Amino acid sequence: MKSSSPKVAIIGAGCAGISAHIWLCELHISHTLFEGKKMGGMLHRVHNRIENYPPEHYENGKVLAEKLCNYVTRRVIRKGDKADIFIEEDIVSIEKSAEEKGFTLRSHTGQRRFFSHVLLATGTRYRQLDIEGYAQSASFISQSTTFTAPSVAGEKVLIVGGGDAALEGARILLEHSCDVVLCSRSKYRARPEFVKQITKSDSARMLDIGIQVVRFQPEADVLRVVFSDGKSESFKKVFVRIGVDPVVPELFGEMKKDMRGYLRTDSNCETSIPGIFAIGDVSVAPLQSIATAIGDGGRAAKAIQILTQL
């Protein structure tokens, strides 16, 4: 027997969330799209060229985000898509509804809304260092070498991290004549060619494996960094490239996750809590990319249509 019409919440308006919005419009399924910051989500933190999402190349994530947002706007004009879109509204908790089958979402403003299904397109956030002085040193900290390198050309900088992102960032900074110091708490995991290039450079220095940052001390125009061996140095900018963590709102129950905290899903993108789906970078996947995130959005939207027609 066909159930009542679904009412879907999409949390996050990055690639996955926008794709889900478009497909739910195509399938004439009522839904609301929530985004805590601005349309495009994590694309706004991608400062390098995007060359692996056909058919075009994009100068950076912001350019692609603008194209996606313009596409959504044009669809509304052309097709009359009807959906509620709330920007700068964070969903902070999801509760199981006591009155009917579905979920109650609470936003940062305290407003509560009911939905039959929820699509989590919340993505990831950069990891931060849990050290003294971190919060007070925001103006000296960056995650993007591509964006920041021109402004620190020729300066002494520190990169914290040992993966591909950290060492690729070191290569970019070396191209801008920076004096680069690298700090990693464990063996460097980056591609061998990255490591080889950095070790050969006279302008790059790798601290001994295991030496960690223990404190930031902001000064007038530099950041003094205290290391675990008791030594300290001053840097114009510190790049923290220690990975990302999935962003998941507070939930009424425990979802199945992998050891890193990413949400496990089935072939329809549905999590271990029936009715809640995870799409894009917040879910476990062998590849996290723009293409796979957009595919997830369409797949989950179609799954909701099928499930509610059974």
Secondary structure layout plus pairing:
Blueprint: E1 7-11, H1 15-26, E2 30-35, H2 61-79, E3 84-87, E4 91-96, E5 103-107, E6 112-115, E7 117-120, E8 124-126, E9 141-142, H3 145-148, E10 156-160, H4 164-175, E11 179-183, H5 192-200, E12 204-206, E13 213-218, E14 223-227, E15 232-235, E16 237-240, E17 244-246, E18 250-251, E19 276-278, H6 290-309
Parallel strand pairs: 1-2, 1-7, 2-3, 4-18, 7-19, 9-16, 10-11, 10-16, 11-12
Antiparallel strand pairs: 4-5, 5-6, 8-17, 13-14, 14-15
Considering the protein shown, what is the CATH homologous superfamily of the largest domain?
A: FAD/NAD(P)-binding domain
Give the overall silhouette: elongated
Structural class designation: alpha/beta
User: What CATH first level of the largest domain would be assigned?
Assistant: Alpha Beta
Strand line-up across the major sheet = 3-2-1-7-19
Secondary-structure element string: EHEHEEEEEEEHEHEHEEEEEEEEH
Total of helices: 6
The stretches of 5 or more residues where confidence is low (pLDDT under 50) are: none
Total domain count = 2
Helix content: 10-25%
Could you give a short account of the major beta sheet?
Answer: 5 strands, parallel
End-to-end separation: 6 Å
**% residues in beta strands:** 25-35%
State the total count of DSSP E strands. Answer: 19
Radius of gyration: 22 Å
